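Inputs:
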Amino acid sequence: MSPAREAIYLPVLFLTVALLGGLRIGERVILVPPPLFTLVLALLLIGVLVKGAALDSDRLMHSRRPTLANVNGFILLVTAFFASAQAFSMVTPDAGLPRVLCGGFLFVLLLNTIAAATDRVRVLRSLLIIFGTAFVLKFVVLASLASPAGGTVSRILQILLEGATLGTLSQPVSDPATGYVAFFVLVLFLFGLSMLPPRRSRETTDLVETR
Amino acid sequence: MSPTQRPARVSPATDTTVRALGVALTACLAALVVWAYVRQPQTLAEVTGGLTASVGAYRIDQQAFDEARQLFQADQFAGAEAAFNRADPARQDARTQFYLAYAFYRHGWGRVYNDDVLFAQGLEAVNRAIALSPDGRLMVDDPDLQMTSADELKADLEEGLHRDPSDFNPLNVFRRRK
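Outputs:
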């Protein structure tokens, strides 16, 4: 990995994700800090990346590297951690039963991915599916249920649904712009994850050490 | 592999420069992110104003401030509020925020009842003024004002928003606006 990518491009990308991941556009623009649970999920995600060879921590921090390079590696890990926390916070529903269920599912899915992680491509593909599904659930399915109903029929359906679920599905209404920003941030985040230094195969490692 | 085919290696000095630059850039950006989460800016003016204020370079629009004070003294509070907002678009000047809060107080004050919405906006403004003041203490030297400290104004605004049986005291109609 080039020094510029490690020291500048990726940290800036992840900090952008950390900044915009908490953006909620409603009547006011709010920046929501990551909840405690998403920090746990972020830690698991880093574990998934390391276990699945999508991130080689030795290539970021190692006793053989110069101090400044280790500082860069540390900063990259920290920014990736906070970006992950904000990415999870972004795709988790804001309230009610969906929030609890989604949190639980993400937790189990990440543990499952850690257990099944075999190679980098599969891990990245799995993360794409996890984040993509959570995004669709929050910004398409739940947002359409929470959006102010246009006609009388849809309003009646919403009231019936709310009554049947005792209001546990209802979510705070947010501006559609939030979804667009979230999509952009998610793409940026997944791109950043794919650019992290992967674990080298044994042959490559031997070759590099020989040179 | 011939020398011409070998990929060009970047000198260690350039590597170090890039890495040092990365640390500095990331530190600045991280500070910006933390600042944004703490301050929650609502407009671009608040972002730029907050950043310039953090390096001590923020200045209010003095002409708009003077206009606002004239409107305030002439009891044209709606106009004064707009002009105070124009004078301090980033909401970074404690004195202007104090005057803005005072304008909301006088605008919302009523002999029989107070306007809760205006009082709430006043309370927000005076809280900003207090937060922006060193040590949280703000005194404004203005003989036209009966309340010259932000704490006093805040207490009156909070009292105006508070509901209790004394609100129904008919003698309240004789109270005077500060």
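Remarks. The first helix of chain B runs from residue 12 to 39. The interface with chain A takes residues 10, 15-16, 18-23, 25-26, 29-30, 32-33, 36-37, 40, 42 of chain B (CB under 8 Å).
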